Amino acid sequence: MNKKQARSILDTIAGMFPDAHCELNHANPFELTIAVLLSAQCTDETVNKVTATLFQKYKSPEDYVAVPLDELEQDIRRIGLFRNKAKHIQALCRIVLDKYDGEIPQTHEQLVELPGVGRKTANVVVSNAFGVPAIAVDTHVERVAKRLAMASEKDNVLEVEHKLMKLVPKNEWTDTHHRLIFFGRYHCKAQNPQCMICPLLECCREGKKRMKSGSLRKSIKAQ
User: Fold this and answer.
1) Residues that bind [4Fe-4S] cluster, according to the entry (predicted)?
2) I need a surface site. Which of 73, 90, 132, 221 has the fewest CB within 10 A?
3) 11 exposure class (CB count in 10 Å sphere: 0-12, 13-18, 19+)
4) Mean pLDDT per segment of 10 residues, for the chain of length 223 residues?
5) Are residues 112 and 153 in the same domain?
6) Residue 203 marked as a ligand binder
């Protein structure tokens, strides 16, 4: 795919979701980091339900390390992998207190060294909390990028990120990240993509497969 083709796709998705944004509720970089850590293999909706009370009880890294681990586990038990995440949160908070004076570090290199913080989480934090352009590749971004041929179907997450960074102007990385998520979450869904009303059907691998199989034509005819 060339940049002209990518530009057309990006403009179309921007028109569909002009107000795309981070849907994890947070009031500061620390809360965002905790929320993104909790969101691994979990929906933003569930995370927001949990953090609505969690962020009232825990205001700072000190608060998280002051309670027994099993108490924190119970506070986030509705979250998938809650035991591991509770351990990561307490370990992260100890490092933030010991090494960064209780403040979340602002560089990608520092963030990925924190327990439970991978490349995707670090990208979300630097872009949303500190205004550093970044494209975080979650399941939605990866799926959309591959379906729309902005990346190869065999690409790993890092390869998808690098290809998107080449296709998208740097000043649009963060907005593009949010728009691709919204497009994947609300339109180009994993199981039931809205191919029949999609303006990008002609450049979509998944849509073309459905057209070829006849399943999409049948769906349209049945309406």
Assistant:
1) 188, 195, 198, 204
2) 221
3) exposed
4) 93 97 97 96 94 97 98 96 97 98 96 95 96 95 96 96 97 97 95 91 86 58 46
5) yes
6) no
Which listed residue (85, 120, 146, 163) is catalytic? 120
Does 171 lie in the same domain as 133? yes
Q: Check whether 198 is labelled as a binding-site residue.
A: yes
The answer to whether the annotation marks 195 as part of a ligand binding site is yes
Would residue 138 show up in a list of annotated catalytic residues for this protein?
Answer: yes
Residue reference for tokens 């049945």: 222
Asked whether residue 4 falls in the same domain as residue 82, the answer is yes
| Same-domain pairing of 49 and 144 | yes
Catalytic residue among 11, 85, 87, 138: 138
Q: Which domain holds residue 118?
A: 1-190
Do 47 and 135 belong together in one domain? yes
Residue 195 CA to residue 220 CA, distance in Å, equals 10
Q: Cβ of 190: how many Cβ atoms within 10 Å?
A: 11
**For residues 17 and 183, is the Cβ–Cβ distance under 8 A?**
yes
Q: Is 120 among the catalytic positions?
A: yes
Residue linked to tokens 């290809």: 163
Q: Model's pTM, two decimal places?
A: 0.89
Query: Total structural domains in the chain?
Result: 2
